[in-house]
Amino acid sequence: MKRTAILVAALLLVLVLATSSFGAPRLTIPDASFDFGYVPQNSSISHEFWLYSEGDDSLKILKVIPG
Amino acid sequence: MEKEIIAVGDSAALEIIFSTRKYKSRVAKKPRIQTNEGPPDKYVQISADVVLRPDSTYPIVINPYKIDLSQFTEKVIKKAKFKITNVSDQELDISLKSLPRDLFEVSLPGSIKPGGTESGEIKLLNDALEKSFEKSITIQLTDADSSRFTIPIKRTVRDMTKKLGATEAPGK
Predict the structure, then answer these.
(1) What percent of chain A stands above pLDDT 70?
(2) From 1.10.10.10, 2.60.40.10, 3.30.930.10, 2.30.42.10, which CATH number describes the B53-159 domain?
(3) How far apart are CA A48 and CA A36, in angstroms?
(4) Would the pLDDT of A5 be above 90?
(5) A1 in reach of chain B (CB within 8 A)
(6) What ipTM score was computed for the predicted complex, to two decimals?
């Protein structure tokens, strides 16, 4: 019984390690901050940030939540 | 966001639009990005010094401080000039820090002497002639604070074909 439990635990551990090291998407943003400096009131301004997919699986952007 | 799925090794641009409304002084925002990577969310940060009197900034004054490339008749509006006056006591070099892709080209003076005024120009690319947009460019100076200034650039294009269609209709 004890042996079976250890075996199951070892199997679970292997599964967890496998899923965490393979097929994991990863987002990196090298320049994650931008200062616009002086800007007039009542204006719409914009800046583009570059997002890089550097994991082992495709990166899906699910949602961008305004700050 | 130009694409929602980014392949391994690929990249994509995320455009953050900020409306300065009636803000005063320094404002910072941190939009969060949720992905299938899971928590914690990653974020980008933007900051700006929103000014009430853009005609009295330091060390430069930009005139006009907002550029409108709108086109309401058939006459093509393709470019706009602006002037930059150096109101400091040192020569300032100017560089471009942010520019939207595929819309326009910007020409800037390399440097401006103390008290001097130089011109810059925004020129629309041919692919952007039919587009309406609200974008901006950001420049940086070589003063002690590495000051930055952002110039809002707006373009509204009235659809002339729709207008013509509307006037023809009663005659039919």
Answers:
(1) 67
(2) 2.60.40.10
(3) 12
(4) no
(5) no
(6) 0.88
Q: Cβ of A46 and B101 within 8 Å?
A: no
Which residues of chain B have a pLDDT value below 70?
1-2, 159-172
* In contact, B118 and B84? CB cutoff 8 Å: yes
Tell me which amino acid residue B65 is.
Answer: Y
Which tokens in the block code for residue B38? 């899971």
Q: Which residues of B touch A44 (CB under 8 A)?
A: 17-20, 134, 136, 152, 154
B19 forms beta bridges with A44
- Sequence-distant (6+) residues with CB within 8 A of B20 are A39, A40, A41, A42, A43, A44, A45, B27, B48, B50
Contact between B105 and B133 under an 8 Å Cβ cutoff? The reply is no
Note which residues in 20-39 of chain A have CB less than 8 A from chain B: 24-27, 29, 32-39
Q: Which residues contact B53 (CB under 8 A, 6 or more apart)?
A: none
SS3 B91: coil
Query: What secondary structure letter does DSSP report for B126?
Result: G
> Pick from B8, B17, B42: which is nearest to A56 by CB?
B8
- pLDDT above 90 coverage of chain A, percent: 64
Q: Which residues contact B136 (CB under 8 A, 6 or more apart)?
A: A36, A39, A43, A44, A45, A46, A47, B98, B100, B150, B151, B152, B153
For residue A40, how far is the Cα from the chain centroid? 35
